[in-house]
Write the structure tokens for this entry.
Amino acid sequence: MNATLRSYPSRGVLDRPRSRWADIAVFAGAAVLIWIVVKVSAGMHVPFDENTAPTTISTDPSELPYYAARSLLRMFAALGLSIVFTFVYATAAARLPRAEKVLLPALDILQSVPVLGFLSVTVAGFIALFPGSSLGLECASIFAIFTSQAWNMAFAFHHSLVSQPRELDEASRNLRLSRWQRFWRVDVPSGMFPLVWNGMMSFGGGWFFLTASEAISVNNRSFALPGIGSYVASANAQSQTGRMVLAIVVMIVMVVGLNVLFWRPLTVWAERFRVEDTESADAPRSLMLDLLRRSHIPGLLGRIFGPLVYPVDRFMRIFGLAEYPLYVPATRRRAADIVFTVVVGGALVAGVFAMARYIATTAGFGEVGHAAWLGLLTLLRVIVLLIFATIVWVPIGVWIGLNPKVSRLAQPIVQVLASFPANFLFPLVTGVLVATGASLQWASILLMALGAQWYILFNVIAGASAVPNDLREAAANLRLPRNLWWRKLILPAIFPSFVTGAITAAGGAWNASIVAEIVSSGDTTLTATGLGAYIAEATRVGDGPQILIGVLVMSTFVVGINRLFWRRLYALAQRRYSL
């Protein structure tokens, strides 16, 4: 016999069929995307004079596509910065024990500082950094959006690192991987699933604060950048309800398009990084990802850049191997601890002393007590929000996460709800409250929930989706009763993700209080008694001492609750419920 028998199929048999039409579509899409980025980014660097800068923008509907593209470019620039920050910050907090003692509390504080708090400090600095150019104001806007995205992603990635299976850590050290190799071949893949889902949620958080980031009002000065957020702010100031509704429609179209073209393919691709022994029979799919996989272009790029991987790995070995010293002399370790404590403690004492002296010579410490009382009122709203969000969204998140078919249908809806900037609706809500005579004191909880509750939902979906198929099949084979199924499998499995979501939801609720406790429509303004309204008003009039007091009180509440309550649950999740 001349023919040879093959025991196994060749590599080509397993490859997906390629298509020239897919190549044309991918190439055309990439070309159009590059053209749009170049065209839109040209408007970010134009002459700028802060004394004559516009305070509003045109509400001509024909400008909406351009405004939407400018906002989208800022959002992705902030997302890129957030990813870089997450990789560096979360890895340092997880791998350096001493740094963790500073970085995690600092992350709590950064999460608790409201977006307006960052803007009041950074706007002048960025404008001075780029004199005569609008790039400074653009950087301030991007940085403000970054502060609404980065902290949640850093918490999620840090949790994935500290709860990493011990087998992966042992394999990394036995294979003598360098720190660089371990990061890209072990750490990032093992944390990819929660990182993608929390990145999607953080992107939605950026949309929520888009209006405050583009229509900037600090220190008795107002600036407006071209964008869909400032478009809504200008239409609201001119009581143009029809144009506000048009902007809401454009926003929904943009969010749905992003889900189809970007987030859905990314979440489906992240399925490959699940850690389990069996695979679900009903795997999620994405038309965009299928199109990319049928194109020759990704493979061509891989052949071009693939040979660079080995030289980069060799160069990065200068950072050392991914292993821990087996023995450190006690004297050396104690000396390093003393130096670390003295340096950090000295910096903290100096900072506290400087702030105390500034407050004493300006607003006085009596103002701190007033702000603390307002903080208790806002804390009550946050607690009510978290209780109801947990009751409502945990069962729904589990249902979506465990059913790929449901996830395929529900993800676009959830993404629209989470990404849609709810403060676009605040002027309409204000009109309803005025017409009905309802109080903003309790209605503000609903407004805060529109921006914060999604953190719980997305983290629960991610946690339920990551439950190994082995355990689900075992539970089905054992025919566990529904009550036992929840108590012994689902709740322990999603507990780490829920804690991460609850921490970020609490921080998001405190942040959202700034735009939820004081709302306006045209000439009508409603105010709820609380710390958020206090900070918003101080930022508007440029009262530096009150801004500092408000931010310090809010940070104290958030960090104190995290230390006393959430961190204990976080440690419990790592110790007992890590898969």
The longest helix spans residues 366-402. The radius of gyration is 25 Å.
